[in-house]
Structures are given as structure tokens and as C-alpha cells.
Design brief:
- By secondary structure, the protein is an alpha/beta fold.
- 44% of the residues lie in helices and 14% in strands.
């Protein structure tokens, strides 16, 4: 059995807390997290967006309509 990574622990924590959908912008900084989402794809789904602002709106709308946690992940950038 492979050791538990931080990304795996984060995804398992999201699942345990009722999160079943995550929106976001994948990037090189999130490759391990994307792999963890893929390994748990029977329990949690990742929806890729083209812009961070859109991901936020999608997560907010999803939370309002579904009653589930609205979750998003994005890559860091220049401010």
C-alpha cells in the first residue's frame, strides 16, 4: 500500500465532511491533488474551470442549489 500523501488526506477529509464536488483551475501546483481526486473519483468529482472567478461563482451557485458544500481550488499567481 502506498503511503498517504497530504493530497490524499485532504481529499479524504473533504469526502468525510460531505463534499462531493470541487470546482477549480488545475495547474502544476495542484498535480498531486488532481491525482488524489482521480483516485477517489467514485466519491468526489472535480469540475475544471477556465478562470478562478468562474470557479468561485460555480461553487457558490452549487452550494445554494444543492445544499452541499461549495468547494474550489485554484493555483497561486501574481498579485
Amino acid at each position: 500500500m502506498a503511503p498517504l500523501t497530504i493530497a490524499d488526506a485532504l481529499v479524504k477529509s473533504l469526502i468525510i465532511n460531505g463534499c462531493n464536488t470541487v470546482f477549480g483551475v488545475p495547474g502544476i501546483q495542484l498535480y498531486d491533488l488532481m491525482d488524489a481526486f482521480y483516485r477517489e473519483s467514485d466519491q468526489i468529482k472535480f469540475i475544471s474551470t477556465r478562470h478562478e472567478q468562474g470557479a468561485g461563482y460555480m461553487a457558490n451557485g452549487y452550494a445554494h442549489v444543492s445544499g452541499h458544500m461549495g468547494t474550489l481550488v485554484v493555483v497561486p499567481g501574481l498579485v
